[in-house]
Amino acid sequence: MISYDFTPSRVCPRNIHVELSDDGNTIQSVEFLGGCNGNTKAVAKLVKGHSVDEIIALLAGNDCAGRGTSCADQMTIALAQARQLATA
Q: What's the whole-number mean pLDDT along residues 79-87?
């Protein structure tokens, strides 16, 4: 399993912890530290078991209140960086 901690920017959560399958293709779990508790828990439940590529295609670029990013968008960055660990 690949475990990765990401420090997001321009959003409320202070950390996004992701765990991926050994090959880096499937999301095992996501946990947000901070942010809108109900929303971040919902996002984490919805992405569990899905492929990294599927979630990146669906949520990358999602904007919150004109910030140019969002919790979901920052999560896609974390997922992409965590997947890179599988190929390193």
A: 92
> What is the rounded distance in angstroms from the CA atom of residue 22 to the CA atom of residue 9?
27
Q: At what angle do helices 71-87 and 52-59 cross, to 10 degrees?
A: 150
Greatest C-alpha distance within the chain:
36
- The CB-side HSE value for 79 (13 A sphere, CA atoms) comes to 29
Q: What CATH number is given to the structural domain containing 41?
A: 3.90.1010
CA distance 5 to 7: 7
Over the stretch 26-52, which tens digit does the pLDDT of each residue have?
Answer: 999 999 999 999 999 999 999 999 999
Q: What is the full DSSP assignment across 14-81? A: SEEEEEE-TTS-BEEEEEEESS-HHHHHHHHHHHTTSBHHHHHHHHTT--STTSS--HHHHHHHHHHH
**Residue-range definition of the domain harbouring residue 16:** 2-87
